Amino acid sequence: MLIKTITEAHEIKAYYDLLKKAVTQEAQFFRLTPADMEGESFPTEDNLKSFTLGAFSDEGELLGTVGFKRDSFVKLHHRGLVFRMYVSEKAKGLGLGRKLLQTLIEKAKQDDGLRQIYLTVISSNLRAKNLYLSEGFERYSFEKEAIKMGENEYADEDSMVKYL
Fold first, then answer.
1. Would you call 25 helix, strand, or coil by DSSP?
2. Which one of 45, 87, 106, 124 has the minimum C-beta count within 10 Å?
3. Beta carbons of 108 and 114 less than 8 angstroms apart
4. Distance of alpha carbon 80 from alpha carbon 77, whole angstroms
């Protein structure tokens, strides 16, 4: 297994293929839809303030991903956001999510002045929440019916932070 920053065109294509599959097959765990990604630019750059990690099999298949963006506003620059974390169905239970998150944290900490990393998670996604808690994140807010999942169907969302 290789975890590295996604930078190449074929890796970006694999990222969108994996993410579109995720938000379609496991829509209950995502706040975005395939339509939200249509025509968007790749969400990160390739530096300590903005990056996307991919976990690749020995055969080069993308099995998981996670993104990071440091806040750019002066008064918020001490914070960074973890987003679009996903591990494919075939790789679940192998500790890949933990390795991606740990690699993200170690890489993000290399950027001077970063004091906290935060994220949001659908409240019913217990597997993800337990991973985040076990890696030192704590819940700091709860929003009832934060995400409209369908007609008259809403999901609650937790906000979590890890202080460095």
1. helix
2. 106
3. yes
4. 8
* 19 Cβ contact list (under 8 Å, min separation 6): 37, 65, 84, 86
SS3 string, 69-134, reads: EECCCHHHCCEEEEEEEEECHHHCCCCHHHHHHHHHHHHHCCCCCCCEEEEEEECCCHHHHHHHHH
Q: Cβ distance 117 to 161 under 8 Å?
A: yes
84: its two tokens: 């679009």
Cα distances from 136 to residues 56, 101, 102, 125, 149, in angstroms, run: 25, 11, 11, 17, 29
**Can you say how many angstroms the Cα of residue 128 is from the centroid of all Cα atoms in its chain?**
10
Tokens read off for 71: 């806040």
The amino acid present at 38, given as its one-letter code, is E
Q: Residues for the chain: how many in total?
A: 164
Question: Which residues have a Cβ under 8 Å from the Cβ of 107 and sit 6 or more positions away?
Answer: 48, 51, 53, 68
